[in-house]
Amino acid sequence: PAHTAYPTRKITREEAAPVTLGDAASSNRRTIFKYIVPDVLPTCQLLMGLTQLEPGSLWNTMPCHTHERRMEVYFYFD
């Protein structure tokens, strides 16, 4: 369980903090829309973003990697 409670609220795409990364030459140009991060709203342990690939880009998580202190989950959809 979280050690602090915060009220539930809707976060719109306009409120999310966008970060553009990668480049077209390596087929990984993408924008990460950070929805649940401290800069957008108070959060205890959860962080969440949505990655949108640019046309012609094919991947966003390579090379494969792990995190020592956190878990990372991916949900893919069209």
TrEMBL record:
<protein>
    <recommendedName>
        <fullName>5-dehydro-4-deoxy-D-glucuronate isomerase</fullName>
        <ecNumber>5.3.1.17</ecNumber>
    </recommendedName>
</protein>
<dbReference type="Pfam" id="PF04962">
    <property type="entry name" value="KduI"/>
</dbReference>
<comment type="similarity">
    <text>Belongs to the KduI family.</text>
</comment>
<keyword id="KW-0862">Zinc</keyword>
<dbReference type="InterPro" id="IPR011051">
    <property type="entry name" value="RmlC_Cupin_sf"/>
</dbReference>
<dbReference type="InterPro" id="IPR014710">
    <property type="entry name" value="RmlC-like_jellyroll"/>
</dbReference>
<dbReference type="GO" id="GO:0008697">
    <property type="term" value="F:4-deoxy-L-threo-5-hexosulose-uronate ketol-isomerase activity"/>
</dbReference>
<dbReference type="GO" id="GO:0046872">
    <property type="term" value="F:metal ion binding"/>
</dbReference>
<comment type="pathway">
    <text>Glycan metabolism; pectin degradation; 2-dehydro-3-deoxy-D-gluconate from pectin: step 4/5.</text>
</comment>
<keyword id="KW-0413">Isomerase</keyword>
<dbReference type="GO" id="GO:0042840">
    <property type="term" value="P:D-glucuronate catabolic process"/>
</dbReference>
<dbReference type="GO" id="GO:0019698">
    <property type="term" value="P:D-galacturonate catabolic process"/>
</dbReference>
<dbReference type="InterPro" id="IPR021120">
    <property type="entry name" value="KduI/IolB_isomerase"/>
</dbReference>
<dbReference type="InterPro" id="IPR007045">
    <property type="entry name" value="KduI"/>
</dbReference>
<dbReference type="GO" id="GO:0045490">
    <property type="term" value="P:pectin catabolic process"/>
</dbReference>
